[in-house]
Amino acid sequence: MKQFKIGVSQKLDMLKFKNLGQEREKEINKAKIENPTTYRVNELVSILHPSKIKVKVARIEKETEDTKSFYLQPVDQEKMPPFLPGMYVTLAIKKDGRTFKRAYSISGCDKNRSYYRITIKKVENGIVSKYMHEECMLNDLFIILGPFGHFTYQPLRDSKKMVFIAGGSGITPFMSYLQNDHFKESIDSLTLFYGAKSEFDLIFKKEIDEIVSRNPKIKVIYVLSEQKRDDYAYGFIDEEKLLKENLEEKSIFVSGPPAMYFSLNEVFKKLDVPNKFIRHDIFREIPIDLQNETFKLTIKMLDKTITIPCHGNETLIESMEKGRVKTLVHCTVGECGFCRSKLLSGEVKTENASVRIKDQENKYIHPCVTYPLSDVTIEIPIK
Ligand code: FES
């Protein structure tokens, strides 16, 4: 075998190579480069979509006898985050040392996103809606989370011919659609059916009429259930009224009380409207039979076990808020999974929860949309 002799220059090369690591380290140290603790892309994301937004009530408008709009301006940033029409925010209020969170659709904003408008109907037993109507003042500060939500127009999925069906305060998500130029340019036609008890209960009528008068693609049909007037349709939004609109190949978005969803679903079945064309906004259905019942809710969290009363007309999260149990909630409408908990015992009714099939099999629930039907024990998995 041929032997190679190592010459002086090769020995010097090896020596240089041996010292290379140390020299490189010296050069790096000289440059004084510090590893970044944040990245610009993350900074931009947290400016555009902060996890919590501190807002100030800049304006309050009475819309109808039991409905008010609140204009929420950002406190620590110039603009509110971008959102798609149909999305909602979660509003957190503090009352008697307890925090209550509820979701409200964004009913509008200006072109600069200098505010979000949310519109709240006063509900007799609604802690947050009553607080906002009776106690909220100009310049009050709140925290909101979001925007969240899937009640959005998706051009790849939805038709360019749209039908919106709103009942009562269910008009709120549609207002952000009607204000959005990009949406209006994207579609070919839109018919809005808007049902209310009387003309005095129609929220935003003037605003809707103005938008419709400026946009020939949009038509509105007001339907009053308790008042007969020549210029309005009378009764409920039913098969007869929908049949006057050709529903073929149209996407139908529905937002209103649960009773309206159920009756319209029957109509859609009868008219053979394919499910892919129907979209519902989030709604809650309180189990009617047990509304006046009070049960026991036992919560296991970390190494603690707490038992509080829970009522048949309140979600488990609402009972926890009242019982001063710290809650883990974001969306409050069953979508985000932040409140995911395991049902250890008891019967419940749960609506609209986006719970994965495997989770359902393993008895995981979203307590923000779950009502008790008996005494209930849940475990909140916190590590
Ligand atoms: S808080 Fe989002 S699913 Fe319950």
Can you put this structure into words, describing what you see?
This protein is an alpha/beta fold and 383 residues long. It is built from 10 helices and 19 strands. The chain has helices spanning 8-31, 40-48, 127-134, 172-179, 181-186, 205-214, 239-243, 258-270, 316-322, 357-361, and strands at residues 53-64, 67-74, 88-95, 98-108, 116-121, 141-148, 161-167, 189-196, 218-224, 233-234, 251-255, 278-280, 294-301, 304-311, 341-345, 348-350, 364-365, 370-372, 376-380. The strands form 4 sheets. Strands 1-2-5-4-3-6 form a 6-stranded antiparallel beta barrel. Strands 10-9-8-7-11-12 form a 6-stranded parallel sheet, with helices on one face. Strands 14-13-19-15-17 form a 5-stranded mixed sheet. Helix 6 (205-214) links the parallel strand 8 and strand 9. The mean pLDDT is 90. Residues 329-332, 334-339, 366, 368 line the site of FE2/S2 (inorganic) cluster (FES).
CATH superfamily of the largest domain: Nucleotide-binding domain of ferredoxin-NADP reductase (FNR) module
Number of domains as seen in the coordinates: 3
Q: Rg to the nearest angstrom?
A: 28 Å
Distance between the termini: 66 Å
Overall average residue pLDDT: 90
Count of beta strands: 19
